[in-house]
Amino acid sequence: MAFIEVKNLTHIYGQGTEQEFCALRDVNFQIEKGEFVAILGANGSGKSTLARHLNGLLLPTEGSCRINGLDTLIPKEVWEIRRQVGMVFQNPDNQLIAGVVEDDVAFGPENLGMEPEKMRQQVDAALKAVGMTDFRLFAPHLLSGGQKQRVAIAGALAMNTNCLILDEATAMLDPQGRREVMTLVEKLHQERGMTLVIITHFMDEAAKADRVLVMEKGRLVQSGIPKEIFADAPRMHQLGLAVPLAVELAWHLRKDGMNLPDDIINDDDLIAALEDGYVH
């Protein structure tokens, strides 16, 4: 059984009104436990609407969304889904609600009815996992953007989350903050086997995923490993998306007659190809 199973998912905003808008149309895919998946798409493609279905913040108009066998359409199962799937949004200020970091991390476990001693252990472990132990008594508004996102991730970890969904979580961060957050979530994926789903406009982030899903006008139009998806730079441009810089450069070099392999995806791949004498 896949950890995430989306079948014929359709979502219509304002159904039955003059403002009716279909944001998702008949979307189908599965994500296995421990997989790292990136979801790409131009603005308005439906990727953020899709992300909100993965922990029951939105419910299907048609079709279904199951998380570890639990159905988002069954009200009594939604709370357990939200415990298993943690969401980190673009603006961390919209998620941090307490006056002190450790209280914010404890918010989820407290609402789960966790015993006080167990909750303290969970909060301590979560803060340690994200490297924020020394900031536990800080006010969240005193933290950098990257630190705030790490606190938001700690809040999910404190609930024993099995899956993290980052919905443009690095979009508002400076380069250092982006590196902090991506380094952390990659570590959680590798060391804990955590299922990781990122919605991003940064192609270098998507290039690190096990698999990439591409959305266009509410439909899932492509699915594959990063090297397959990014190999067709013209198609990505057609969809209103960029490709990693190394992919773009290799594509232009091939157009100019250079003999380069088709599976270049990052700077190391490009440098290795040049050093190995592919260019004639």
Characterization of this structure:
The protein is an alpha/beta fold and 280 residues long. It has one domain: Rossmann fold, CATH 3.40.50.300. The chain is built from eleven helices and ten strands. The chain has helices at residues 47-53, 75-84, 101-111, 116-129, 145-157, 175-192, 203-206, 226-231, 233-238, 245-255, 267-275; strands spanning 4-13, 21-31, 36-41, 62-67, 70-71, 85-88, 163-167, 195-199, 211-216, 219-224. Strands 6-7-8-3-9-10 form a six-stranded mixed beta sheet, sandwiched between helices. A four-stranded antiparallel beta sheet has the order 2-1-4-5, with helices on one face.
In terms of per-residue confidence, which ranges show pLDDT below 50 for 5 or more consecutive residues?
none
3D shape: globular
Q: What integer is the average pLDDT?
A: 91
Oligomer category: single chain
Return the structural class.
alpha/beta
CATH architecture: 3-Layer(aba) Sandwich
Specify the biggest β-sheet. Answer: 6 strands, mixed
Specify Rg, calculated over alpha carbons. 20 Å
The total domain count is 1
The DSSP helix count reads 11
Q: What is the end-to-end distance?
A: 49 Å
User: What is the CATH class designation?
Assistant: Alpha Beta
CATH topology: Rossmann fold
Strand content: 15-25%
